[in-house]
Amino acid sequence: NTHTVEAFDELEVRTEKFMILDFNPTAEFWLTERFRQMGLSLRAHEIVTTYRDNPYLPASQVRSIERRRGIADWWRVYGEGRYGEPTGVAWYNWEVGHVEERGEHILGVDFGQGSSPTAIVAVRREDGERFTAWELAYGNLSLREIADILLLRARVTPDVLIVGDSAQRDEINFLRRDGVPIVPCRKYTLAASFHLLNNVSVRISARSENLLREARSLQWADRGRGLLAAGQPDHAVDAVRYCMHEML
Known about the structure:
7 strands; elongated
């Protein structure tokens, strides 16, 4: 079965002695981050095993496995027990860790529509092609609430650049009339935008739960990478993309 982080949390708080989590590392997922967030790394042990550790495996199965040495992605996971390379993942060149959440260079805003949340993120260039990102707000926010958040940040860092979804000109105009120095972002195709993201290194704050959830879940719906799979929220990631379009 595919277990969610919610199922893990429900089980972990009810466990007195120990838990065993067994999985094939086809790609990194929530588990490593959860250990880091909850401070479990000091009392958690990672054991990497492969077919070589199974003394009861028939010789015929060993031969079958080893015939697949030439299939790099498959062998990496099932032959060597290492995490696989991302397949079909839209954004993969990011990591999670501690981020000093101040001194941002640029803010990105993706406006919510209907029941969709508004996302406001901050991005800072560290050096060269290394960036940090964190979320400032995520939820059903009124334009007045958005303005208050952005004006506060603009006062703290007067030279900060604020970019918003260029498709939402009414919202941008409202905020500008309210004194928010926001400009419409540049728009690229999805393929070009995520290519841009994956060509730089981004560290996401461990406290940015919504941004991390989105970054982990976004998948391409087609091989041509022109469309994201339906049903996956991407509001905070969109806000990061808007920032990167300006900074790069």
